[in-house]
Amino acid sequence: MLNRRSFLKKSATGCGLMIAGGFPFESFAGESVKRITILHTNDVHSRLEAFPMDGGKHEGQGGVAARAALINKIRSEVEHVLLLDAGDIFQGTPYFNLYKGEAEMKALSMMSYDAVTMGNHDFDAGVEGFAAQLVHAKFPVLTANYDFTETVLEGKTRPYTTIKKGDIKVGIFGLGIQLKGLVPEDAFGKTKYLEPIQIANRTAERLKKKEKCEIVICLSHLGYEYNYNKVSDLILAKETEHIDLIIGGHTHTFLDTPTVMKNRAGNEVVVNQVGWAGLRLGRLDFILDSKKSSKLSNAQSVIIRKQTRG
Description:
Blueprint: H1 4-11, E1 15-22, E2 34-41, H2 64-77, E3 81-85, H3 94-99, H4 102-110, E4 115-116, H5 126-133, E5 146-147, E6 160-165, E7 168-175, H6 185-188, E8 192-193, H7 196-210, E9 215-220, H8 233-238, E10 245-247, E11 259-262, E12 268-272, E13 280-288, E14 294-306
Parallel strand pairs: 2-3, 3-4, 7-9, 9-10, 10-12
Antiparallel strand pairs: 1-14, 2-13, 5-8, 6-7, 11-12, 13-14
């Protein structure tokens, strides 16, 4: 079981980095600008340790110690940083089988995640199992389109949150995938699934217009894209307004650079996802001009490597 001392000791060893992709930096010379860096993960699936050094494709990659070291390094270099996760925190290694999500929640809390959303595998111990682990979560769980009325999760999640980083106000909300047919009914119980596009439009408009957020982020576990008629991040981007960034999950899609779409108002929406198993950390640097419009200035998908000695 992880404890804070051993976790931080491992984190201090550092990590190896490789940039998998990037955007060119856009110049805003002559303008008064503000900057914010958004770091993100998705579908980590209880991978707390790096992949073993066994000659496999991902040997030495991933692990919370190396991720924490990278996050700490970025935080020491950049003034305003947000750290987010797009769901499927649970399931995939013996850590979940043994501790039912406690280790994962403690690790995210130690890394000071700002917010997360729920994926379908976060129901693998039922709504009761997820609710039991929230005592270890020092961050909000956001889901706008799951109605947990008459379940043990009622009142324990939020549809959205707002966070101030300096004088930058960011609105964040979560969307989850349809559970019926994907998750056993006894696991999600009386949870009601609400149509995501309508909810997204309503929530994003509130965050942008009423809450006066300069950037609106959707943490989505809908999936990047499908070859059949199913709501995905790309459809969400096209069919909504007021969302600036969609951080996705579920389909384990490795994007070396984000996808930039036009929403129904003709404005740009950035869509990104960084695969699975904590192999990569997404980094998106945004700048805001004097009119409070946001632009993506730099994007990196950083492969997380365990530092080796010898």
